[in-house]
Amino acid sequence: MPSLKDLKNRITSVKSTRKITKAMQMVAAAKLKRAQDAATASRPYASRMASVLANLSASAGAGGPKLLAGTGEDKTHLIVVMTAERGLAGGFNTYVVKLAKQKIGELRAEGKTVKILTVGKKGREQLSREYGDMFVAHVDLADVKGGNYTESALALGHSLTTRFEDGEFDVATLIYSQFRNVLSQVPTAQQIIPASAPADAPKVDLKGAIYQYEPSETEILETLLPRYINTQILSAMLESAAGEQASRMTAMDNATRNAGDMIDSLSLQYNRARQAQITKELIEIISGAEAL
Amino acid sequence: MADKLHFALVSPAKELFSGEVDQVIAPGTEGEFGVLVNHAPFMTTLKNGVVRVLEGDSVKMRIFVRGGFADVTPDGLTILAEEARNLDGVKVEEVQAEMEATLLKIQALDKDDTAKGALQAHFDYLESLKAALVH
């Protein structure tokens, strides 16, 4: 049976923990709003880009540039694992890493070479023990301020296309957490190189007319494809950022509630122990008085 | 009512404009071109320059874009710009300040840093934006 003082100390410590988790929850809620707005604002561009690419690739056929057609091989896979810089966000990072591990396992079972590029510190930490020797690069998101991921996305896109052209890999898959809503973030694997237009991209009915290209179709595709890849990376980063905040908000909300429950049960225990002590003292006094 | 052209201008950051207009004049890499309603399907890359939106004979809006694509379909015109700013909202001094900040960032980077190319493009954009403002 813990003493009264022990109980009091524990109650104070749980109370301060609750203050911290409550504060983190509110910070996450404020950041979530911003991140969500940024993710929503980037969607029209991404979806229009996808439909432009769908139109173009439909008419380009198989003879397109390498970024679209692929290297013709399927040996070396690059897995880009996108997680958060910080923890304390519930299962957010773990779910992404779990999917990545599963994917890596599958590819290895098929006898492919797997390389890993990590984005965000947490994923790197969780993967380094098992797959540390497969890391090729890491992108740090700690410097990103105010949700401005454009520069990091451009840099990553550039490094991916350069590596691809140097023949470092045949297929690149991006594993990130897709933001559905505040309560659900879905870990998703998306192939980004060779690029493919999403199957659900709206096709435009040309009403029998033929597209004119200026300059040529191939030149347009060559400028469009790297940008399309950058756009996909950027929207993945934005979604991942929104998901991180949403996940942290939920996790911290739960933690705050748990702390509250704990304080209640500890207070009950404390009051009982105090009452027991008072009763005991009374009994001692009364039995002492009777003995006289 | 005469037919109108559906025009949308989006950049990665946001959708700058979406609506019905009379005519749009855009800076293609192979020359400036105008788009009216019922234009034939057409796609081109863009260079840095001003996209003008015309309502009747008067210019309703001027947007400065960096690179990107124009896609004309029977549904209308879509411009996908890497960066875009409404010219009415920017001041020369602000652009100048941003140019200096970008230049500092470029100088701070290593030579082979991958972000350098992107920053340089941003700087060039600001420079031409400033030129467009002064005139």
TrEMBL record, chain A:
One of its GO terms (cellular component) is proton-transporting ATP synthase complex. GO terms for biological process: proton motive force-driven plasma membrane ATP synthesis. Keywords: ATP synthesis, Cell inner membrane, Cell membrane, CF(1), Hydrogen ion transport, Ion transport, Membrane, Transport. Pfam families: ATP-synt. The keyword Transcription does not apply. It comes from the Bacteria. The keyword Glycosyltransferase does not apply. InterPro entries: ATP_synth_F1_ATPase_gsu, ATP_synth_F1_gsu, ATP_synth_F1_gsu_CS. It is a peripheral membrane protein. It is found in: Cell membrane; Membrane; Thylakoid. GO terms for molecular function: ATP binding; proton-transporting ATP synthase activity, rotational mechanism. Signal peptide: none annotated. Produces ATP from ADP in the presence of a proton gradient across the membrane. The gamma chain is believed to be important in regulating ATPase activity and the flow of protons through the CF(0) complex. F-type ATPases have 2 components, CF(1) - the catalytic core - and CF(0) - the membrane proton channel. CF(1) has five subunits: alpha(3), beta(3), gamma(1), delta(1), epsilon(1). CF(0) has three main subunits: a, b and c. Belongs to the ATPase gamma chain family. This is ATP synthase gamma chain. The gene is atpG.
TrEMBL record, chain B:
Transmembrane segments: none annotated. GO terms for molecular function: ATP binding; proton-transporting ATP synthase activity, rotational mechanism. The keyword Manganese does not apply. It is found in: Cell membrane; Endomembrane system. Keywords: ATP synthesis, Cell membrane, CF(1), Hydrogen ion transport, Ion transport, Membrane, Transport. Residues 5-84 form the ATP synthase F1 complex delta/epsilon subunit N-terminal domain. One of its GO terms (cellular component) is endomembrane system. The keyword Protein biosynthesis does not apply. It is a peripheral membrane protein. CDD domains: F1-ATPase_delta (cd12152). F-type ATPases have 2 components, CF(1) - the catalytic core - and CF(0) - the membrane proton channel. CF(1) has five subunits: alpha(3), beta(3), gamma(1), delta(1), epsilon(1). CF(0) has three main subunits: a, b and c. Produces ATP from ADP in the presence of a proton gradient across the membrane. Belongs to the ATPase epsilon chain family. This is ATP synthase epsilon chain. It comes from Hyphomonas oceanitis SCH89. The gene is atpC.
